[in-house]
Amino acid sequence: MQRFLSAFGWRHEGAANAALLGLPGIWFACLYLAAIGALLVTAFWTVDSLSGNLIPGFSFTNFQQLLSAPVYTKIGLRTIGIAASVTLTDVVLAWPMAYAMVRLAGPKLRAALMAAVLVPLWSSYLARVYAWRLILAHDGVLNWALTEIGLPGLHIGYSNWAMWIVFSYLWLPFMILPVAASVERIPPSLLEASADLGAHGLVTFRRVILPMALPGMVAGAIFTFSLTLGDYVTPMLVGGEGSDFIGNVVYANVGVTNNIPFAAAYAVLPLGVMAMFLLLARKLGAFDAL
Amino acid sequence: MRNVLKKNLARAVLGLSISLPFMQGAAALQPLQAIGKGEGVLNVVAWEGYAQDDWVKPFEAATGCQVNAKYAGSSDEMVALMRSGGGSQYDVVSASGDATLRLIYGHNVQPINMALIPAWKNFIPQLKSPAFNTVHGVHYGVSYEWGPNTLLYSTKTFPSAPTSWSVIYNPQYKGAITVPDNPIQIADAALYLSKTQPTLGITDPYELNQTQMNAVVTLLKSQAKLIKKYWALASDEIQLFTSGDAVVGAAWPYQTNTLQAAKVAVADTIPAEGATGWADTWMIAAKAKHVNCAYEWINWVTTPKVQAQQAIYFGETPANTLACREMDAQQPGACAQYHANAPASYFDRIKFWKTPLTTCDNGKNDCLDYSAWQREWQNVKG
User: Given CB atoms, is A253 within the 8 Å cutoff of chain B?
Assistant: First the structure.
């Protein structure tokens, strides 16, 4: 039987592929594409305001509302802006760590550093966000430390600054790992060649290491950017006034007002942003680095 | 092939939408005439803490109705649950005043025969036939417990209680104010404006036309700049006051009790303008399969004993006036602490949550509905 199957698969390549890809394919089509399809269809529906029932149909009401109220543009730009600044911050923070891990550290230190990067991921996301809330609070560790060394206290608890710090912290491991992997893949001979040709450290970094590690950075950026873009819990917990993300508006429309079509219409925005981001990432070779 | 798939997908989506519960004609629905033999089961949708073993177990033993409780986290979830499965999946729901009208006008709940609810005659008068559960003289639910949205303040910042809600709109407390992240919060500002700007003509904080709403939104937008945080969970606000990030805000008595128990220097008050509040109602599904058990349940939870247990457990005020003595028996001083002995004037200062509708009580149809409130609230928060 086994021999027959393997012979059959060898002769009919298509059948073998179909057998292998069948299950993931069904999973992808049913759970993933169907969900996005339902989202796109629902975005054109409306809701009966009294009974709360969905009214199927095809109307642009939700999109008109989104475009006519400046608040939704503002929230969209805020979400994308913070996601972008978190990504940039993580790139800057990840480099020294990633480089030290693969180029400078010995095997033991390397394992220790790797563990240090990964250990936070074992604890609950919520626990880590709440921890930051305590650190940044009015009478928190940060302000206590600042006053101890004679500096005035900072009032960044419950603000967009707090969100930026917490997001940068949360997603940093997802940037360090792909950057480290891509730095590791650079053959040492190239660095030696660069040095032999008279380039000093900074020039080698800028003209050899950085371009070769770019796909790794873009791969990390896919994580940091998309994770920030879709989050709504951190804004809810550490945000202040004027800290809502797209996700918060979606959450409020699904959970509070029961206006699922409006939520679906707004959810099309991050979908579009991510699609553009991924196209750009593919051009920069990020998928080869994953 | 592609087209066939597309067509099937479209059909599946359409089928799904048609099977969603639509409005049912309920004109013929008559209330129960007599409580018969229990059906043995009762499916309950409730707020967390509303179906505690303390009173559920004795109920099951006394009536033989097995209680299956499903907890909901929001009024909207409650409405959705009561409509799920064609509206016959659950029997009773503990709906708040901002959900009750949606259930009534959605024909999801049935009229109640008050002759079968003996405790009802002992209710405080204001909760016998409140507008949020009684429409055109027909009762669609039995009031349960209620509480005010109070002004919570740090006694360090305010040595004596503030007498006006103006403190939560005062730039003096910039960055130290917190209010709930909830569209119904618009009513708090509307109530304040109804007293401070009578020319707007706001008579009911839940019935606002666009002009009135614009004035309220202007006030709330100026408040937004002063807000430390819009709190989503009661624990958020407790932490804000514990850490000193907030010194004044809108709250429930539950937060005050918790903070005072933790020795945080806070107190609460109902300022001169009055306050908004929440009142919960037990309602029976229009298509309930276990109506007799549902009536038994409502009778059980409106007894003075369970009313008192519930009030102390949750930190709220019972509808049944006879619960006061029970509360003091269960926990000395509880009756006064949870306002169960408060005079009618205390109750009358509270404007209870109800669903904003397009129809106003003054007969006009220019009021804004709840979805408009939600949009305005998003505008305020930015």
Answer: yes
ipTM value greater than 0.90: no
- CB–CB of A242 and B382 under 8 A? yes
Report the phi/psi class of residue B94: left, alpha or beta, with left for phi > 0 and alpha for psi in -120 to 50.
Answer: beta
CA distances to A71, A87, B108, B128 from B29, rounded to whole Å, are 45, 59, 11, 21
According to the model, what pLDDT value does residue A255 have?
66
pTM: 0.79
Mean pLDDT, rounded, for A167-185:
95
Q: Please, which pLDDT band fits residue B166 given cuts at 50, 70 and 90? A: very high
Question: pLDDT-derived band of residue B164, with 50, 70 and 90 as boundaries?
Answer: very high
- Whether pLDDT at B372 is above 70: yes
Closest chain A CA to residue B244: A138
- Pairing type for strands B350-352 and B275-284 reads parallel
Per DSSP, the residues of chain A read: -HHHHHHHHHH-HHHHHHHHHHHHHHHIIIIIIHHHHHHHHHTT-EE-TTT--EE-S---HHHHHHHHSHHHHHHHHHHHHHHHHHHHHHHHHHHHHHHIIIIIS-HHHHHHHHHHHHGGGGS-HHHHHHHHHHHHSTTSHHHHHHHHTTPPPP--SSSHHHHHHHHHHHHHHHHHHHHHHHHHTS-HHHHHHHHHTT--HHHHIIIIIHHHHHHHHHHHHHHHHHHHHT--HHHHHH--TT---HHHHHHIIIIIS--HHHHHHHHHHHHHHHHHHHHHHHHTTHHHH-
Task: Provide, as residue numbers in chain B, all residues whose Cβ is less than 8 Å from the Cβ of A74.
Answer: 382
Q: Taking CB atoms and an 8 Å limit, are A53 and B175 in contact across chains?
A: no
Chain A residue closest in CA terms to B374: A257
Residue B314 scores a pLDDT above 90: no
Residue A28 C-alpha, separation from nearest chain B C-alpha, in angstroms: 15
Interface of A with B in 49-88 (CB under 8 A): 49-54, 56, 65, 69, 71-72, 74-75
With CA atoms as reference, the chain B residue closest to A41 would be B13
Burial degree of B61 (CB within 10 A; 0-12, 13-18, 19+): exposed
pLDDT at B20: 36
Measured between beta carbons, which residues in chain B are less than 8 angstroms from residue A236?
A: 232
Q: Percent of chain A at pLDDT above 70?
A: 97
Disruptive mutation site among A156, A234, A257 for chain B (greatest number of B CBs within 10 Å): A257
Amino acid at A123: S
Pick from A52, A157, A252: CB nearest B102: A52
**Beta strands of chain B (E only): which ranges?**
41-47, 66-72, 92-96, 134-135, 138-139, 142-148, 150-154, 177-180, 227-231, 248-251, 266-269, 275-284, 317-318, 350-352
> Within B154-206, where are the H helices?
186-196
